[in-house]
Write a structure and sequence with these properties.
Number of domains: 1
CATH class: Mainly Beta
Strand content: 35-45%
Number of helices: 2
Number of strands: 14
Structural class: alpha+beta
Radius of gyration: 23 Å
Shape: globular
Largest sheet: 6 strands, antiparallel
């Protein structure tokens, strides 16, 4: 009886392994030669250093029931002192008069935009290109982090991202009720679409905004926060094969070259190169 049970367990584990491997394979573009251990390229990359352009702040409810300010200020977490290019942070100050469902939204500057090719055609019968405001996140993102200097205020921090289909996903970074600098992170759920079963496989996410949200315990005192180093942990790998350099037209070529140039720029930044 024991040997029969062992055989059943072994068979079950083998089947589970086959299902797991099949599931992994189904999520990848299959090439003639297959992939080796280089089929992943995990990197930690700063996508927004908060060095030059201030973000846009919006409070709800609006004035006169609230006040809100935002600007770039000198200073950084001591843990990031190794980065000589990191000299500034994003300073935020706001206050609400009344308790309730109060929120503060921090949106990237207008210069941060992403062009996306849709499945529709424009008036000239060419693929329609739309502009999406926000910060493009390279590769297939596993997690997002940001350093926040808190002063013990009862608020929660959210990050809003948009996938290539136009759907919004809200990531919970957690409470801001602490004092000092602290890195806050949020995992990107596996169900958020970031690729397709064709080449180019990767479909990048766009970081749309931070939302600072009050809680039932939130007081009405003035709040001061600082943010630095918005970073992603991401898989930069994309499949390569004989013929990947061929283009149907200039639009096809431009889209591939744009993604390649953006990812190369971030690779250099991650490695410390200029």
């Amino acid at each position: 009886m024991l040997s029969k049970n062992i055989r059943r367990v072994s068979a079950g584990l083998a089947l589970t392994g086959l299902l797991t491997i099949s599931g992994l394979a189904a999520n990848k573009v299959q090439t003639l030669n297959g992939d080796d251990v280089d089929a992943q390229e995990l990197r930690s990359i700063i996508v927004e250093p908060f060095e030059a352009e201030p973000w846009v702040i919006d409070a709800s409810p609006k004035p006169p029931e609230s006040s809100a300010e935002i600007k770039i200020v000198p200073g950084r977490p001591q843990n990031l002192s190794y980065d000589e290019g990191n000299k500034n942070s994003l300073g935020v100050r706001y206050q609400f008069i009344y308790p309730g469902n109060n929120t503060v939204t921090l949106t990237p500057p207008a210069s941060k935009q992403v062009e996306r090719t849709t499945g529709q055609l424009d008036k000239d019968n060419k693929p329609k290109v739309v502009t999406v405001p926000g910060i493009e996140l390279p590769g297939k993102v596993k997690a997002i982090s940001v350093w926040v200097l808190g002063r013990g205020n009862e608020y929660e921090l959210e990050g809003w991202i948009e996938d290539w289909k136009g759907d919004t996903h809200i990531l919970k970074f957690g409470s801001l009720d602490y004092i000092g600098w602290r890195p806050l992170s949020a995992d990107v759920p596996a169900g958020v679409p970031q690729d397709v079963y064709s080449f180019p496989q990767t479909k990048t996410l766009v970081f749309k905004k931070f939302v600072i949200r009050s809680t039932p315990k939130t007081s009405q005192e003035k709040v001061v926060l600082f943010l630095d180093s918005l970073k992603v942990l991401t898989d930069m790998y994309d499949v390569h094969f004989d013929g990947s350099e061929m283009n149907f037209d200039e639009a096809d070529k431009a889209e591939k070259e744009r993604l390649k140039a953006y990812e190369e720029q971030l690779r250099k930044r991650a490695s410390g190169a200029n």
